[in-house]
Design brief:
Elements (H helix, E strand, L loop, with lengths): L1 E6 L7 H15 L3 E6 L26 H9 L4 E7 L7 H14 L8 E7 L4 H13 L13 E3 L3 H6 L1 H26 L18
Parallel strand pairs: 1-2, 1-3, 3-4, 4-5
Length: about 210
């Protein structure tokens, strides 16, 4: 079993990485393989609603990290998305990345467990959690919870590590993710199948 962790911060080894590393450490202790992907500091193209991903290729027409991560998602069993807080929101690169990733490649994420973690100096964390969790909710993904919101605080990695409650939350997140992945695996081995999907209905409120 493998969990893909996405570091949406421009800083590869900053506060977001520190929080994700605590989750990763616990996942590894529970026998879960992990891989961390850093979005980086390059420009991240936003979705242009071109609908090119509806073509036979079913990939985003902007061939960058989005398609690379989608390829990794095919064999991943769970996902953790980490973001710093910018103006009570996920940072711009992360939102552009997730918009395109989930719109063009949603089938590789459906029914797989996921969680987001956010880090801030002070405020805006709950708004950011609400924002990022919506990607999972619309895609039938079980959301991994902890004993509090999945957040940590600090202006630098050392301060984040001093947030004892925040670090405990990250460890609990790792444990809970591992537990659910193992439960899903046991269910598959017992013959439990994924829910049968109805043909999707779309209601247009403009008459």
């Amino acid at each position: 079993m493998k969990v893909l962790l996405i570091n949406g911060s421009p800083k590869q080894f900053g506060t977001t990485f520190t929080a994700l590393s605590e989750v990763e450490k616990m996942l590894n202790q529970e026998g879960i393989e992990t891989e961390v992907v850093h979005i980086g500091t390059g420009a991240m193209q936003g979705c242009t609603a071109c609908l090119g991903c509806d073509s036979e290729s079913e990939t985003c027409i902007f061939d960058d990290l989005v398609n690379d991560v989608a390829e990794k998602a095919k064999t991943a069993d769970g996902f953790i998305f980490g973001s710093p807080v910018y103006y009570a929101s996920g940072n711009g690169s992360m939102i552009s990345f997730m918009d395109r990733l989930f719109y063009s490649q949603s089938k590789y994420f459906t029914h797989k467990p996921a969680a987001c973690v956010v880090v801030a100096r002070r405020a805006g964390t709950t708004a950011t959690l609400d924002q990022l969790n919506k990607y999972f909710l619309i895609n039938q993904m079980p959301i991994i919870s902890t004993q509090y919101w999945n957040m940590a605080f600090g202006n630098n990695p050392d301060e984040v590590r001093k947030d004892l409650e925040g670090m405990q939350i990250m460890r609990t997140l790792g444990k809970n993710m591992a537990w659910l992945l193992k439960s899903i695996d046991a269910g598959k081995k017992a013959g439990i199948k994924l829910p049968e999907q109805e043909q999707r209905a779309r209601t247009n409120f403009i008459r």
